[in-house]
Amino acid sequence: MADVILNGIKKSFGANLIVKGVDLHVKQGEFLVMVGPSGCGKTTLLRLIAGLEQVDAGEVRIGETRVNDVPPRDRDVAMVFQSYALYPHMTVRENLAFGLSLRKLPSAEIASRVEEVAGMLELSHLLERKPKALSGGQRQRVAMGRAIVRRPKVFLFDEPLSNLDTALRVQMRGELARLHRRLGATMIYVTHDQVEAMTLATRVAVFNGGVLQQVGPPLELYHRPANRFVAGFLGSPSMNFLEARRDGANLVGKGFTLLCPPDLSPETSRVLVGLRPQDLRVAPLGPLSGTVDAVERLGFDGYAFVTTEAGPVAARFDKGTQVSVGDRVTLSPVADALHLFTEDGARALR
Ligand code: ATP
User: Which residues form the ABC transporter domain (predicted)?
Assistant: First the structure.
């Protein structure tokens, strides 16, 4: 087990700078989840850590060792991909053992490691089967097993559950969390799934355009996003953003007036107000008003998508509230729910 340290990592493909100077310290035993829009460089970062790509600038350290010039097989990391290629002509047992045989481990050692991992992943009864006789979830467990038998210092996961159906994903998510607790290994995990990120991560790292935007425990990022990008990226539906100016004790925007939080610095005149849809209720006499464009009912409650003078916003409504497309409604923020950002969204103000 080991820390993974990235210092000033840069990587270009041709003329395109893809990773733009990333500093990140993943601590031993952490489950760090990387999220960000498609193309922001997450997979590239994993491949740089694994040694499948070379950095153009900066340093990759695994434990005490600078690994920039260390070939992938000597970095002691294991990568599990979205498309897990098992050897079709080999049984599960042979698939699990293959990497260890290549490393010329004694056969008794190989056999005991394979049995142990098969037990851990509930594959013991499937050891003599070929991959084509396994379900998607079982195949994915074999792919993970192949990484685990190697006992690497660091696990790298690139969207390992994205090919599974919803039920299997939920099951595998639980298994991954248990595995992490049991192995205590350093894990770096790329996903598009916010639920995976929020539930598996000890810390989440949010990237945009090859730049690390913020890293921290999932709830810290959710409740105290560092900038507009992070605020808008985490949470569903996305946070609402409204331009406003300060007017005495109020924040005034197009068609609305909100009470200004007292902790906003007096020098600030223009802000971007952020309000999560969960913190904005369809309710009588609210300070924002508009027309309902669409309604999503989730059973107990739902979301109304409302066009206001200040722009489109999403707001929650409770079971008892009647909301239909075309209705004029007013919206009311719950107490102390306002996020405030600089006008350009680059920085949170509270
Ligand atoms: P996704 O979430 O869609 O998997 P990502 O954040 O993992 O995206 P990367 O796969 O790291 O993004 O790719 C980042 C950018 O680098 C993309 O624009 C991609 O086209 C480009 N890229 C990646 N690998 C190469 C390569 N070998 N040659 C040229 N361009 C590449």
Answer: 4-234
